Hints:
Helix content is 39%, strand content 16%. It is of the alpha/beta class. It has 2 domains: 6-35 and 90-130 and 190-288, TPP-binding domain (Rossmann fold, 3-Layer(aba) Sandwich); 40-86 and 135-186, no CATH class.
Amino acid sequence: xxxYSAEIIQxxxxxxxxxxxxxxxxxxxxxxxxxxxxxxxxxxxxxxxxAARGRYSExxxxxxxxWTDTQxxxxxxxxxxxxxxxxxxxxxxxxxxHLLQDKNYYILTSNVDRQFLRNQFPKERLFExxxxxxxxxxxxxxxxxxxxxxxxxxxxLQHIQTADASIPPDDLPLCPYCGAPARLAFRDYPQYAxxxxxxxxxxxxxxxxxxxIIEIGVGFNSPGVIRVPFERITGERNLVRFFRITxxxxxxxxxxxxxxxxxxxxxxxxxxxxxxxLVLEQLETLASRK
Length: 290
Ligand SMILES: [Zn+2]
């Protein structure tokens, strides 16, 4: 007989009885699904040039600035290639999708790995707050169009120089409309306003019933995207339950999960300090026993 923690049973019932379900998904969900940015062994073997200069993980590279444009694009081409091309649609996302079927749900994610769309979640229920790794746009915002990064990163990947981990300057991506430097279409991308308006409308509608908020794998890398707004929504509403599912990466020593719940919302909240894969697996088993 399988044992379930009281928190997981509480979450299961909250999902069943909610009128609206708001999911906030951070890097911890993809990490639990098998795509981790904290794998230090992978980093050392894949990026020896940067490992020799004191960097220890892809997560650690998010805050790195001391590189040339040609080094930055070489790194991003390979990192995005790993995330978008080498990593398949991850099955853990299917478990979440199954759990949400027939529910009125919306997903807010800080992830740029496209795993929700690649697992056929409907686009109209998804707000990719930080955009996506698979698109480029103009650094001068000359047009509203973003375009696929794939052809350019494939060219870059063939030209990465091991001596200084850079690409030749001729491979730097340019805007096809005005010739200005291109940039990855994340953390500020052309369709942001449209996606945000759709999400805001759903959030407004959810004031009409019981809202179950489930935050999965969200740390403090970009707390303004999910963590802080979700705590605020929980504080402002009466018909709400808030669940925080988070655990530290198993392949890293750094502590980034922070499972704590602020005191003012504690009575409406529940922290589940477990790996998201374990939680989703147990929820699935509970659902199948019905
Ligand atoms: Zn342009």
